[in-house]
Amino acid sequence: MVNRRRFLTLSSLAGLFPSFSFRSPQSPVDKAAITHPSTNALPASIGPLVISTWKQPKANAAAQAVLDKGGRALEAVEAGVRVPEADPNDMSVGYGGRPDRDGHVTLDACIMDEKGNAGSVTFLEHIMHPISVARAVMEKTPHVMLSGEGALNFALSQGFKKENLLTPKAEKEWREWLKTAKYKPIANIERHDTIGMLAIDGQGNISGACTTSGLAYKMRGRVGDSPIIGAGLFVDNEIGGACATGLGELVMRTCGSFLVVELMRQGRTPQQACEEAALRIVKKQDYKDIQVGFIAVNRQGEYGAYSIQPGFNYTVSQQKKTQVTDAKSYLK
């Protein structure tokens, strides 16, 4: 009786939905019916590409050198952002970065590869290359993010050297600031998130990196968007990648880089996606004294950039040519 009832039930359902077929759980999946994104190499006319926030020809050159040798995009972005991390004259990232209000240089960084793997460090002190620590987190731990003392201990366990990152120049500026201790970030002056970088390698794969010492004279413990996957950086190898720069709190509230990539998924060009992501912030904030900018690239090698305030520029390297361009902006 039970079997007869089950047969009648299924027969009734089949009558209601004649196009519906009942498949046994053991039935094989038709793999030919599943579509996969293309993983073909870029056309020769496009070639490997590097794009970074701000004027960074030396960083782009380091990344391009990796790509010219057939290296992965992941290796390229790490090599590229390590350049400003070690440059004491770039005072918003790595060695020589401006300290927090207590005089400590604290660093944030993240990295993401073409497979969706990601690594991040926040509130890291005494290590010149946080981007390489972030990559080690990605490749050698089950985690995505390590912070503070834990990030430092992990870095030391991996052989990174502990050193003083506060240069005499940065310390002098900080002590001068202490006389008034007024805190008001100024658009384009501190160049928050000095470098975010995206690269496409010869196989058409995309990776990204982002590294910073954050806002000058920030509250101790403050972390911005730069090490946050989906805020300061996001990569989806099926679609493209994006990086953000500027006042990190605003980027975090809108999941800015993730938003840019999702807009590209919906059909926007990289330029259109960057513009729409910036306008999402403009609609909700008093934007006259704040800066946020985005860069993006898609799998076709198209790229774009946009910012709220004028003054944001970006660097593109492709086919052995490097160009620094002023991004379009909401305020003219």
Please tell me about this protein's structure.
With 332 residues, the protein is an alpha+beta fold. The chain has a single domain, classed as 4-Layer Sandwich (Glutamine Phosphoribosylpyrophosphate, subunit 1, domain 1). Helices cover 30% and strands 21% of the residues. The protein has nine helices and 13 strands. It has helices spanning 2-16, 57-68, 73-85, 130-140, 148-157, 168-177, 248-254, 256-265, 270-282, and strands spanning 49-53, 107-112, 118-124, 145-147, 195-200, 206-212, 233-236, 240-246, 292-298, 303-307, 313-318, 321-326, 328-329. It has an eight-stranded mixed β-sheet with strand order 4-3-2-6-5-1-11-12. A five-stranded mixed β-sheet has the order 7-8-9-10-13, with helices on one face. Helix 8 packs across helix 9 (270-282). The longest helix has 15 residues, at 2-16. The chain is globular. The N and C termini lie far apart (78 Å).
Secondary structure tally: strands: 13
CATH superfamily: (Glycosyl)asparaginase
Strand content: 15-25%
| Rounded radius of gyration (Å) | 23 Å
Largest sheet: 8 strands, mixed
List the helices and strands and how they pair.
Elements: H1 2-16, E1 49-53, H2 57-68, H3 73-85, E2 107-112, E3 118-124, H4 130-140, E4 145-147, H5 148-157, H6 168-177, E5 195-200, E6 206-212, E7 233-236, E8 240-246, H7 248-254, H8 256-265, H9 270-282, E9 292-298, E10 303-307, E11 313-318, E12 321-326, E13 328-329
Parallel strand pairs: 3-4, 10-13
Antiparallel strand pairs: 1-5, 1-11, 2-3, 2-6, 5-6, 7-8, 8-9, 9-10, 11-12
